[in-house]
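Exercise 7.
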Amino acid sequence: MASAESQGWRQKLSRLDVKLSPYIYISPFFILFAVLGLFPLAYTFWVSMHNWNLIGGQGAFVGFDNYTHVIGQEFFWRGMRNTFSIFILSGVTQTLAALALAAVLNQNIRAKTFWRMGVLLPFVIAPVAVGVIFSKMFADQSGLINGMLAWFSIDPVKWHAGVLESHVAIATMVNFRWTGYVTLIFLAAMQAIPSELYEAALLDGANRMRQFVSITIPMLRPTIIFVVITATIGGLQIFDEPRVFDQSGLGGSDRQWMTVTMYIYEVGWGAQKSFGRAAAVSWLLFLIIIAVGVLNFLITQRISSGDADKTPEEPANSTMAKEPVA
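Solution. The predicted structure, written as tokens, is:
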């Protein structure tokens, strides 16, 4: 009788182990995510609802007054303009350049391992170092770029004075660091494309450009969606490169390249020392990133589904055409 009870108890423990083990194995990730992700997010929202000062600490509950105050500030909207401008200038050129580089590295070239490793070297350089070096290169008077322009009798560009000029310089810094990283992502996806597709296209007389447009790009669509969404998340949080673009770190005399994250730093640790308003800006940026990310996802999914609905016409002389059944 005792052995039967013990056997039944072991069976219950075995069934319980089968049900709970998967959740126990994956629980460390969710615990860390809750501690390091969800809790800071919720606590930031709590801070944004209070008159929270860097020196005095938590103050009175003010509701959404911090949000209304921030939305009414000119520097907030200027930071939004600068952030989206730098993001578009860097994101579009970065994606196109990475696609081109990945297509070249995917070919049978000499020392391809060396070149594949070489494109990743700028990514391992500290962003502060990249910012300092490029800020000297884009110096208004004695910079390398203006020196090269002088060789062609072109007037020097005021990289630190103009809005578009400073955005181009900062976007160049961002592209220098991240293009190689995105290139390797595209390269890994290209190597997963079946070679039979290229062989069939080659027999049909398609050149390399035609193969790239008709085979490579459609097969890379999920990877492109991933790159666009991650670039959106990272691009709208840019801080390091514009922060070290000059010595003051304020985003220019007229805040011509101050981003939203730089504005958060200025509100929280600058003259205002208002953690409540800085947290409100952080939450506004968080909502904007979600909105832009969802919009990117919907647009890319719409394009993807639209292309999938189209049935490509099979060429009459295609070697891939089915033979007639006897």
